[in-house]
Amino acid sequence: MSIADTTPPDLSGALSARMRGVGTSQIGLVADRGRDDPEVVKLWIGEGDLPTPPFIVEAAHQAMLAGHTRYATSLGLPRLREALSAYHARHWGVEVPPERFAVTAGGMNAIMQAAQALLEPGDEIVIPSPAWPNLAEAVRITGGVPVTVPYRVQGDGRFALPLADIEAALTPRTRAVVVNSPSNPTGWTMPLDEMKALRDLARARGLWIVSDEVYAHFTYGNAIAPSFLQICTEDDRLIVTNTFSKNWAMTGWRAGWLVCPRGLGPTFAKLGQYNTTSIPTFIQHAAVTALEEGDGFIRQMVSRCAESREILVAGLSRLPGVTVSVPEGAFYLMARVTGPGTPRAETSLDLAFRLLHEAKVGVAPGTAFGPEGEGFIRLCFAISPGLAREAVARLSAVLGR
C-alpha cells in the first residue's frame, strides 16, 4: 500500500479536553469556499480593501536595510512603547507610561495573553454576544468558560447592553468581563457613563475588565470612542487590547499591543517571551511610523467607511424582510434577513453560502458570532463606496426577488 493510500489515524480524541472544545470559525468556512474567486465581493472578514500606506511599508524597508532584523525585547522596543504612550495622550488625553505597554503579535495575541494571565481552569469570563468568535475561543483554549450575555435589540434596531444583564450573569466563578467597544459585529458603542458604572461594579466585585478597543477611531457622527483608560487608575484591574491592523491597514503585519496595570510589565514580558519571543524588529519600527505619521490615514479610512456605511444601510433597508441595525461604530453592519427571498428553514450559514453562490457576495453568517446571531448576516464596509454600491446591487437581486 502506498503512503497516498494510507488513512491517518484519528488522534483528535487524544488531544486535551479544552482543545477538543474549541470551535471552527464559520467565517472561515464561508471564506474558504470563495476566497480564490476574483468575482466575489468579499465582505466576510474584518479587513479593508486599502493596502498598507507606502510610508509605513518604506519604514519597514529602511529598518531592514539598517539591520533591524534581530531579536527584540519581548515587551517591544522602548521607542515603540514611548510612541504608544504619546499616541494615547494625543487621542484620549491620558498619561500612560511606556512600561505599562506590551507589544503583541496582533490583537489576537493580546487577547490570548490577557486570558493566559487571568484564568484558572473553570474561571468564567462574561462576554456580550453576538461577539467576535475569537474572544470565546481564547477563553476555552486557556481553560476558562465563556458566559455570554445577549445584547438587547431596541425598537430602532440598535443594540443595547444594560448593566443589570451583566450583573445577572456574574457568579462566584466570574473572573472578568470583556467589553469590545465599538463592537464587532454589532457596532454598539458603550457610552462613558455606562463604562463608569461597569468600572464601579468591577471594583466592588474584584473583577477584571478586558477592554478590546480596536475600533475606537471608527465612530460615525461622534468623537472618538471613549477608553476605559480615561476613567480607570493605573491600579485598576484593567487590560486594554488593541492592534495596528485596522487603523493603518496592517492586518498581515501581525502587530498589536496591550495596556496592563502598574507593576505587571514583567508578567507580560514573560508571556511575550513564551508566546512569540517578540514580533519582528523591523515591523516594530514601521509601527512607530504608523503611530507618529498615520493620523491622516486614519481619518481617510474613517471617512471612507462612513460613506460606504451609508450606502449599505440605505440600500439594504429598502429590501423587503431585511432589517438593518445601524452601527454606531466599527466597520460592520448586522442585517436581519427574514424573507421573502429567504426560505423559512434557512440558517444564517445557509444564507451566507447561498449569497456567495447566487450573488457572488461573501458575508459572515450571524451564527459565527454566537447563537444570538442566528437570522443575521454581517457585512464589513471597510471598502470603497463603489464596491459598496456593487454589493447592494448584487444582494438586492437575490434578497429582493
TrEMBL record:
Keywords per UniProt: Aminotransferase, Pyridoxal phosphate, Transferase
Organism expressing this protein natively: Methylobacterium variabile
Domain of life: Bacteria
Family: Belongs to the class-I pyridoxal-phosphate-dependent aminotransferase family.
Keyword Transferase recorded: yes
A Gene Ontology molecular function term of the record: L-aspartate:2-oxoglutarate aminotransferase activity
Needed cofactors: pyridoxal 5'-phosphate
Reaction it catalyzes: L-aspartate + 2-oxoglutarate = oxaloacetate + L-glutamate
InterPro entries recorded: Aminotransferase_I/II_large, AspAT/PAT-like, PyrdxlP-dep_Trfase, PyrdxlP-dep_Trfase_major, PyrdxlP-dep_Trfase_small
Catalytic activity, EC: 2.6.1.1
Protein name from the UniProt record: 8-amino-7-oxononanoate synthase
Ranges of residues in domain Aminotransferase class I/classII large: 39-395
GO biological process, one term: amino acid metabolic process
Ranges that cross the membrane: none
